[in-house]
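Hi R.,

As promised on Friday, here is the backbone we talked about, encoded as structure tokens. Could you run it through your design pipeline when you get a chance and send me back a sequence?
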């Protein structure tokens, strides 16, 4: 039986430089040094990456998903990085490590996790997408385009392996339950859910003839875990490509359109997501706009090697320009919707406090909204 390899990305915001905009180089260096010590024993290979103020520990290993050893290693390193962040007085040091002690699995403890156990193919191209200043549902749009939209992925029409379609697992974080939906048969039903990314999030996608996923996303919502605003979740997505799966060019194509995601300043504004190489992943303007980095790895017997920084391509310049133009238009709305998120989606609001403070200053109005019965009595008209 072919050996399996697991690719895990465990990530957290352990402190920003400066503010929430970027990462201090010493933090990356420390994470590198620590993972180097684990290479060859606990893990096969690693790459330390970042997007904005989020540190990503990308690791390959033979321990499967949800391994306490791998999660423990990542937790230990994130804690050490947080301690260094505190020494450097970085902003929000340790903000994503919500609990004091590790208890076997980082899920539910603050960090974001995406991991998949796979049988490495003859050639195994993998893309790791990392986003900052937005939330996990942001992957719904590109995942639908990649795996279900033939206008994005011609392979769905002309590659017989892809034309069988895929299974999407959709997770409802508030209810903590999931549903599996098949494409193309159920694509309209699927879109009904994916179009509401605050409530329904793609957990993974898999081909119909295997249990091995071809895409996995982080789905944790920090606010639901902590019960208060603790920053946006800044999610990760891992996608396998080529040879019966979408090509690297199909997987990156949705990002040529800077669609609108929630997040940005104070996790409370809609803004365009801008595809950038890692060196440009510094969301400064109004703490944004949200960024996404795509690192391409060509797995070789579990070795990650050096990634290709896929959005370091002038063909994405126009998406970056468009994102800036959209950002300008949205910014002009200031504190008004639809730039500012609707009240119930804002993770950061003074409204409950305001309502309490102003409770005694509200007066019953004499302007009455008529009930259907009152309307009929007054006008003889009947509502449908
Ligand atoms: C967004 C984010 C930032 C902060 C903002 C205010 O996810 O992290 O936009 O919300 O910089 O931060 P505080 O309240 O820490 O000053
Ligand atoms: Mg931050
Ligand atoms: Mg962040």
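Update: got your reply. Pasting your designed sequence below so it's all in one thread:
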């Amino acid at each position: 039986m072919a050996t399996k390899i697991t690719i895990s990305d465990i990530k957290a915001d352990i402190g920003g430089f400066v503010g929430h905009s970027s990462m201090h180089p010493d933090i990356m260096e420390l994470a590198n040094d620590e993972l180097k010590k684990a290479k060859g024993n606990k893990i096969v290979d690693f790459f330390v990456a970042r997007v904005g103020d989020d540190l990503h520990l990308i690791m390959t290993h033979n321990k499967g998903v949800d391994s306490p050893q791998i999660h423990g290693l990542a937790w230990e390193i994130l804690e050490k990085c947080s301690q260094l962040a505190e020494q450097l007085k970085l902003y929000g040091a340790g903000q994503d490590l919500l609990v004091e002690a590790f208890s076997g699995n980082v899920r539910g403890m603050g960090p974001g996790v995406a991991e998949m156990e796979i049988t490495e193919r003859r050639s195994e191209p993998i893309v790791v997408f990392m986003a900052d200043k937005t939330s996990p549902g942001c992957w719904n749009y590109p995942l639908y385009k990649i795996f279900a939209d033939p206008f994005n992925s011609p392979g769905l029409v002309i590659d017989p392996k892809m034309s069988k379609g895929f299974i999407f697992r959709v997770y409802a974080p508030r209810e903590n339950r999931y549903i599996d939906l098949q494409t193309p048969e159920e694509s309209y039903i699927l879109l009904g859910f994916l179009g509401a990314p605050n409530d329904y999030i793609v957990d993974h996608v898999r081909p119909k003839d295997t249990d091995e996923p071809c895409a996995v996303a982080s789905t944790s919502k920090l606010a639901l875990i902590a019960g208060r605003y603790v920053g946006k979740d800044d999610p990760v997505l891992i996608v396998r490509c080529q040879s019966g799966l979408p090509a690297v060019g199909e997987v990156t194509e949705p990002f040529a359109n800077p669609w609108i995601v929630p997040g940005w300043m104070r996790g409370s504004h809609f803004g365009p997501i801008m595809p950038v190489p890692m060196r440009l992943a510094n969301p400064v303007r109004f703490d944004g706009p949200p960024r996404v980095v795509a690192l391409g790895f060509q797995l070789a017997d579990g070795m990650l090697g050096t990634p290709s920084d896929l959005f370091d391509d002038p063909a994405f310049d126009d998406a970056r320009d468009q994102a800036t133009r959209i950002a300008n238009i949205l910014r002009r709305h200031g504190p008004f919707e639809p730039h500012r998120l609707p009240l119930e989606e804002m993770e950061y609001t003074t409204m409950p406090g305001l309502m309490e403070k102003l409770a005694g200053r509200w007066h019953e109005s004499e302007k009455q909204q008529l009930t259907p019965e009152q309307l009929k009595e007054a006008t003889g008209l009947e509502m449908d």
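One thing I noticed while checking it: The longest strand covers residues 4-12.

Thanks again,
M.
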